[in-house]
Amino acid sequence: MEFERFVAAAQKRRALWGICFVLLALNAGFYVFFIRGQQQQVRDLQARYSRQRAELRQFSGTTGGNGPYAKQVAVLEAFQNQLPQKVAFTEKAAEIDELLKKNGLQVEKMSFSPSEAKELGLWRYATSLAVKGPYASLKSFLADLQNSPSLFAIEKLSFEKDLKNNEPLEMTLDISTFFR
Q1: Is residue 72 part of a domain?
Q2: Distance (Å, whole) CA 78 – CA 86
């Protein structure tokens, strides 16, 4: 009696059973076409990751400090040791001022803002200059700045010319220098 009632209820809800069957078939198809297809890609990526980890372990100095990674760390440390101490900041600011004067350029104010580059263990001093003058003088100043034995990073450079008032060319320059 119970079974007959169950069969009668199932026949009344044929659409519901059809939808359930379609969802089950779609789920199985999704598994076959997408999940199983990506399982090989996942295995390949895991193998690649394992190889890269092994290479990294090899280069990280576990080979007695002779790996390429250890050599690059030594080069970076040597570079950082060549940077001046933070107390030499005034000399570097004076050097920029001397280069400006050498090229006949004047700047109204030059103020540096310090920030610590913790990931490098260095101090960064940055300034923004607005300098007016002839193109040749500005170009000569930039060449002197680049040829300086000090490390000056030109982070932003722009030129502006007011054609209406026949004013000299204006150069805006963001410069940074680094210290230990």
Answers
A1: no
A2: 17
- 53: containing domain: 2-59
Rounded to the nearest 10°, the torsion over CA 117, 118, 120, 124 is 20
Entry pTM: 0.58
Q: Residue 66 pLDDT more than 70?
A: no
Select from 122, 127, 125 the least CA-distant residue to 83. Answer: 122
> What digits encode the pLDDT tens for the residues 124-153?
999 999 999 999 999 999 999 999 988 899
116 with 150, same domain? yes
C-alpha to C-alpha distance for 103 and 95, rounded to whole angstroms: 13
| Domain assignment present for 65 | no
State residue 74's pLDDT score. 84
Domain count, the chain: 2
Cα–Cα dist 52/59, whole Å? 10
Torsion 96-101-103-109 (CA) sign = positive
Task: Tell me: pLDDT of 34 over 90.
Answer: no
Reading the block at residue 157, the tokens are 């450079």
The Cα–Cα gap between 27 and 37 comes to: 14
Contacts of 17 (CB under 8 A, 6+ apart): 10
Question: Rg (Cα) of the chain, in Å, rounded?
Answer: 34
